[in-house]
Amino acid sequence: MSDSRQSSQEAPQGRVLVVTQEFYPATSVGALRPAKFCKYLPEFGWIPRVLTTTEDCLGARDGSLDPEMVARTEVIRAPMRPLPRALQVPLETARAAYLRWRDQDWLLRRTASNARYQSFWWVRALPDLGIPWIRSALKVGREAVRECDCIYSTYPTGSAHYVALRLSRQFGLPWIADFRDPWSQGTIVAHMASWKRAIVRRAERASVRQCNFVVSTTDAITRRFRQTYPKEHADKFHTIRNGYDAWDFPPEEEILASRGDAGIFRAAYFGTLYAGRDPAGLFTALRNLLESAAIDEDRFRLELYGPPPPKLQREIHTLGLEKVVRVEGLVPYREGLKLMCQCDLLVVIGSPRTDDLCIATKLYEYLYARRPILALVPPGPIRDFVTDTRAGHALDGNDVEAIMRYLRDCYEAFKAGQSQRLTTPIPEHYGRRYQAGQLAQLLSAARLSGG
């Protein structure tokens, strides 16, 4: 499988059922990856048919993401069955408790209460939030899969893998199981009760044994799978990274024309501050730089894009950063990409709980925006990514002095008129089209090997 860029004329024609609980017009990362596969797979001879939930089950939506892809892709939606009345109240209570823990964790440092809230969360998420979807998905899927040659499913949620497993067994079709995040190997599973961990591991083991190939988003996850399942052939496990789609980014002239604040140094963070993503070191560094007059509050700005934790504004006010730090909230997906390209520095705030194996999609988008990256992350794949691509600096999020030095150097270079644009080449395998070619080759190999 050396060349994943083969044309559709060279690739065997086939149809693949894509099982995903999240899909367009949802704006979540879980919807983006399968949508990009669906966009480019036809170029390699594979026609996708999507099995997903109804739109009323989706969270944030953006109907302008990729209308051409939607017009070309057959999407079949199975409704989410309502939960039994006896379960609705306790599960809604568990969800509310989890959200309180998630949003307050980095501010309150309540270690003891964290464990309690995690236990509430996993009562609701066993094995995941897709359980009410399984029955209708199987009913609809049995009709949708009849004209298909392969099945592809993506986790989270685990219910998508369960539906794919059942359909693969019933119809004898080859199946590729995609893990965007670790499942049983994930850090959060360590906080579950032992009987719950056993259920998750059993579900993952059944998926790994049944599917033809296991796909992961980083080499670290792939290595962990090979270590966990040594009896499975090593060639069963493959890495297809998250990535960027150049089509989503605006042309350079549009970026320059719409910036309008060339005299202000703009740093930005895109994403949600949760699960240990703590901006305290960054905020402290900014406060110290302001107090020492190393940066000017009228010419330096840190913009935070994403759903803010409830106490974030209070933290900013306590440190006296109101003029420097701006909480912008959520923006449409493509508008966010334009904003990335207009910034002078892009910030990543990591967490040891979630970033020991994963690299978020926004890292690849940051790279394509060609702006320096400041990654405040623990040792792991993100730090290696930033170092290997020479895209910026990776620092410990608690090393205030190092953060101050880097921000001061960036600001001084900005004031001196030095370009902030990166010139290092972007590896081709980070592009969504290339990655669809990788998946197409696995689909072809799975079809040849049979279900």
Please compute the radius of gyration using only Cα atoms.
22 Å
CATH superfamily of the largest domain: Glycogen Phosphorylase B
Query: What is the domain tally?
Result: 3
List low-pLDDT spans: 1-11, 101-127
Tally of alpha and pi helices: 16
Largest sheet: 7 strands, parallel
CATH topology of the largest domain: Rossmann fold
State which percent range the strand residues make up.
5-15%
| Name of the CATH architecture of the largest domain | 3-Layer(aba) Sandwich
CATH class of the largest domain: Alpha Beta
List SSEs in N-to-C order. Answer: EHEHEHHHEHEHEHEHEHEHEHEHEHEHH
Structural class: alpha/beta
Shape: globular
What does this molecule look like?
The protein has 451 residues and is α/β, with parallel strands linked by helices. The protein folds into three domains: 14-80 and 130-243 and 431-449, Glycogen Phosphorylase B (Rossmann fold, 3-Layer(aba) Sandwich); 87-123; 250-426, Glycogen Phosphorylase B (Rossmann fold, 3-Layer(aba) Sandwich). Helix content is 43%, strand content 15%. The chain contains 16 helices and 13 strands. The chain has helices spanning 29-40, 67-72, 85-108, 111-124, 134-144, 158-171, 194-210, 219-228, 252-259, 280-291, 312-318, 333-342, 361-369, 381-388, 400-415, 432-449, and strands spanning 14-19, 46-53, 74-78, 150-155, 175-179, 213-216, 237-239, 265-270, 300-305, 325-329, 345-349, 373-376, 392-395. The strands form two sheets. Strands 3-2-1-4-5-6-7 form a seven-stranded parallel beta sheet, sandwiched between helices. α1 links the parallel β1 and β2. α3 (85-108) runs antiparallel to α4 (111-124), α6 (158-171) packs across α7 (194-210) and α9 crosses α12 (333-342). The two termini are 20 Å apart. The relative contact order is 0.13. Residues 1-11 and 101-127 have low confidence and may be disordered.
